[in-house]
Write a structure and sequence with these properties.
Blueprint: H1 3-15, E1 16-18, E2 25-27, H2 47-51, H3 61-74, H4 85-105, H5 108-119, H6 134-149, H7 153-179, H8 183-211
Antiparallel strand pairs: 1-2
Length: 212
């Protein structure tokens, strides 16, 4: 066997693992064994790999929804009602892992924060909780003061539209930052998005109080 073929064979071995039930070979990360059809333990992979989508900030949410619900149908408890306790437990573990992945990737803020941590290993050990740009804090304080002074639904609606526009701008900038591998910029934008998301929640609460 020449060196190239030997390397390919070694690589193939590394991507395979034995099924816990029949010991047959299966791809790492497979949901079910292709030989005995036993459900497998959740693989130690990131959320993008688990749901079979490209690692990127821009996600096709309808396609993500379809992929998630298809996988969850395969793991429905009714399909494992007559299975052994171990396989029932593994199906529940897989379902939980899929839920965690889906809840993270479908939400832009959670997805951005997750991507920063995936891409920024060794770059941003403090994460995105350290605010170095004081303009973010100043903006948050000014928006909160404006909200405190709001005394009509029209004013609250205007603040909501302004906040939504700011969020849309940040999401666009985040997409560009991740595409350009600007992790520090993405971290800063993610921090700003957290403040804007919190502001949007406070606006909804203020609207509810006025309607009560």
């Amino acid at each position: 066997m020449n060196e190239v073929n030997a390397h390919s064979a070694d690589a193939a071995k590394q991507t395979l693992k034995p099924c816990w039930s029949c010991k047959g070979p299966l791809a790492a990360g497979a949901l079910f064994c292709s030989t005995c059809e036993a459900v497998q333990p959740p693989a130690p992979v990131d959320h993008f790999v688990r749901l079979g989508v490209e690692r990127a900030f821009e996600v096709d949410v309808p396609a993500l929804d379809r992929r998630y619900f298809d996988l969850q149908r395969q793991l429905h408890p009714d399909r494992f009602a007559t299975k052994a306790p171990k396989e029932k437990a593994l199906s529940q573990q897989q379902a939980t892992a899929l839920n965690d992945a889906y809840e993270t990737l479908k939400d832009p803020l959670k997805r951005a924060d997750y991507l920063v941590h995936l891409e920024g290993v060794g770059v941003l050990p403090e994460g995105c909780n350290l605010v170095q740009d004081q303009s973010i804090l100043i903006e948050a304080m000014e928006m909160r003061e404006k909200l405190m002074m709001a005394d009509s639904m029209d004013t609250l609606n205007a603040i909501q539209r302004e906040t939504k526009a700011e969020i849309d701008d940040v999401l666009t900038a985040l997409s560009l930052a991740f595409k350009g591998a600007d992790i520090e910029g993405a971290c800063q934008l993610t921090t700003r998005l957290k403040y804007l998301d919190k502001m949007m929640g406070e606006v909804r609460q203020a609207r509810a109080r006025l309607l009560a």
